[in-house]
Specification:
Blueprint lengths: L4 H5 L2 E6 L1 H18 L5 E7 L3 H8 L6 E7 L1 E3 L5 E6 L12 E9 L3 H11 L5 E11 L10 E7 L3 E2 L15 E4 L4
Parallel strand pairs: 2-3, 2-6, 6-7, 7-8
Antiparallel strand pairs: 1-10, 4-5, 9-10
The structure holds inosinic acid and magnesium ion (MG).
The site of magnesium ion has 4 residues, from β6.
Length: 183
Amino acid sequence: MMPSLTGLRSDLDRVLLDAAVIQQRVAELATQMAQDFAGKTITVVAILDGGLFFVADLLRQIDLPVRLHTLSASSYHGGTQTSGEVTVPWPAGLTVRGQDVLLLDDILDSGLTLGTVRDRLREQSPASLRIGVLLSKKRQRRQAIAVDYMGFEIKDEFVVGYGMDFQGRFRNLPCIGVLTPPS
Ligand code: IMP
Ligand code: MG
């Protein structure tokens, strides 16, 4: 039998942010972005897979022209610890010179992923470059990142749901929660 959402939810120790709270905050971020980019076309660079749900919900609430590029960056390799190495296959067509770029990811943790992508984008001399994340973990970064838009600041613990996974699971949870530690 396929696990139901109730089934996935039952693996959570607790829900940190329920679906309605996330949607409300995403709407606020969209409003802020629409004001900041008014009169412009936004070149969105979205980091997948984790950012998929955030980006999809967010962009549908921004009533401005958008170009969308996706990247699959990974610094996590299956567990809850970052490997310290970030791999970012760069799509051939991704050039942002002179464009107004909005770099989006699900969560800012060590900063290595966003830092790596941000630096690659900067090399191309965009007209502007802003960064948005749904979550930011309160911790010491391995790379400092100035974030322009942040949904929620959370403490330094491993979360799943709304795009974020543990070993490939839990991305489709509509809420964000903390897993029950293995006994
Ligand atoms: P960073 O490079 O350490 O900042 O990690 C960023 C990436 O690691 C994010 O794009 C997520 O995909 C993943 N990540 C970081 N923290 C978590 C977490 O608590 N749960 C799930 N994925 C996470
Ligand atoms: Mg990610």
